[in-house]
Amino acid sequence: MTKLFEVPLYPYRHSPDQDAPAPVRHPVVIIGAGPVGLAMAIDLAQADVPVLVLDDNDKVSVGSRAICFAKRSLEIFDRLGCGDEMVEKGVVWNLGKVYFGDRQVYNFDLLPEAGHRRPAFINLQQYYCELYLVERIRALQAEGKPVEIRGGNRVENLHQYDDHTLVTVETAEGAYNLEADWLIACDGANSPARRMLDLDFVGRVFEDNFLIADVVMKADFPTERWFWFDPPFNKDQSALLHKQPDGVWRIDLQLGWDIDKEKEKKPENVIPRLKQMLGEDVEFDLEWVSIYTFQCRRMEEFRHGRVIFAGDSAHQVSPFGARGANSGFQDVDNLGWKLKLVLDGKAPETLLDSYTFEREHGADENILQSSRSTDFITPKSEMSRIFRDAVLDLSEHYAFARPLVNSGRLSVPCVYDGSPLNGPDAAMLPERTRPGSPAVDAPVGDGWLLQRLGGSFALMGIGVDVPGHLETGGIVIKGHSIPEDSVSPELKERYLGTSGKAVYLIRPDQHVAARWLKYSEEDVAAALRTSTGWQGQ
Q: pLDDT, tens digit, for every residue of 434-487?
């Protein structure tokens, strides 16, 4: 049977750019048609920014790869127009269990409160995620939006100038050049673009290896994340089990450092390991096998002139906590609206420096949490192992020890505390929705808050009338007045706290820009100036 990742979705086709007498200039060129690059293209195309995606491949990724997509990513997918497809196909889960040896010692619920449209997580093979993103691009193309994917186009060289980047592209018909006002490198952990600019990562590489196996089988396991410390079937190591669509299960097995990777990937060595875990009588088929060595590193700066890095090309974390792809989508969420404003002349080019500030902050947060998870899962000294095992033993019976158990602190959206884009704050309002924080979903009428806010600057008045349309500095702000008698308990708890009224200015990426207790057009205009980088210009 032909598998999805064997079918070309964007096969090589000759482009008029290849016949042009001089390099054709494009406003935005994206290198890489993985999830982050595709999402970036959709975000820009929806805003009518012409965008070209170059990829040396012509199909979606092989194997499940990134499978855990967090609530924040699902909310971003909603704004990109493909959230429903992801959730309908994905396996929804909120619950996780932790085992020590052969006994359960801890469990958790990642979304214990009601009043959210999207679940804490879905599990979905990366190739499905990429498929739905490509299908969304096709839909945008049918609407006449300016987006193109060129498969079989490998970027071979980059040369930067003050106002553009010259890109050399290799194809089956030979090389050609094009120019990009802005180049976004979404070309993965081994980023050729990063190497072409002689840039590197800083951080840690962990001396351990993990086997990933996608297994097709019928099983009665519940839809939960199961993690084992020192299980009987993988003694002195760890293991992870996740359910995916189509009867596929993801199994991660820690192998240690000194191994022969090619030997360990062979079916005759993988299958006995899996039978030890699943039982000799369980029938299964291997769909995909890989071995990874993880690291927690990032580039020192995500922007270099007219080249901007996003996703794994900019930062890498260990897989514990599902922070890789999810942080990449937050990169997209942060960058798209800023680049749109700069291209339209509605914000200074320095606004893009806030992308590096905010997303480098996000990367540092992810690296810190991921490193802590890795150190807990794979102790580097006997004393560390004794401490970890004591925590696991205590957590079975004592609640105080359970927060210390770290089988992977799962991805949460970053709060941009200290960002130069943050505007005024108001006392009495909840800490949870302070400036820099992501807007939290809540029921509003017969719908949901985040759906109502959309993907542009928004002004939300809760118990306060605000104008439905406000234009300042050439930027339109959409107003949403929510009367007191329509305020749900969740909206009140998350946005009002002890105050009866509030006004929020929300950025296009649905992070809070500023908030007040009453409406003032002058205050909103000043906060918008801060949020678009004009402050001090």
A: 999 999 999 998 999 999 999 999 999 999 999 999 998 899 999 999 999 889
My answer on whether 399 and 494 are in the same domain is: no
pLDDT digits (tens, 9 = 90+) for 7-27: 899 999 999 999 999 999 999
* pLDDT (mean) for 59-73: 91
pTM: 0.96
Q: Is residue 217 part of a domain?
A: yes
Residues 433, 515: contact at Cβ < 8 Å? yes
CA distance readout (Å), 414 to 26, 72, 366, 367, 417: 32, 10, 9, 12, 9
DSSP state of 495: I
Extended beta strands in 101-237, E state: 103-109, 121-123, 147-150, 154-160, 165-171, 174-185, 201-205, 209-216, 225-229
Dump pLDDT digits (tens) for 474-504.
Answer: 999 999 999 998 899 999 999 998 898 999 9
Helix, strand, coil percentages for the chain (3-state, nearest 5): 35, 30, 40
Domain interval for residue 459? 431-531
CA pair distance 187, 57, nearest whole angstrom: 11
